[in-house]
What does this fold into?
Amino acid sequence: MSVELKAVSFNIEDEKFAIDINHVDTVIEYQKTTKVPESSDFIEGIVNFRDGVLPVINLRIKFSYPQFEDKNKAKILVVKIGEKKFGLMVDEVKEVMNIKQEQIEESPSVGGNKADYISGIIKTDDSMIFLIDVEKILSKEEKIELEKVIK
It folds into this structure.
């Protein structure tokens, strides 16, 4: 029996991405964020979420895509690393996928170490999907900055 990975897929422009479902908490509609002074440009801001504050990362900026034309159409994928949660602002969240191990190819090293967060490429009949390692989306420095945003 082949090992299966359940992943949530999402789009940024025409590119497809997926994140292991174990790291996904929920998906929420875009809501206006409060910008945090002196934060990196990819940190969209913070939003009220359940009983606290959720920092939101704009993946278009983080992954060097053009800014959203209409942020109100964006979705926020709430992900968790351990006890910490943050939002990833994406164009749209597509589906939960069952992925067989043999569908995942190792990530090619493109552009030096820039794509550390891509843990593999999922090949389907009609597309290629970047498998994102949530724990590597942010560098150590960026994680520290995100911590400060929350406090």
Notes: Helices lie at 59-62, 134-137, 140-150. Residues 138 and 144 are 9 Å apart (CA to CA). DSSP finds three helices and eleven strands in the chain. The chain has a mean pLDDT of 90.
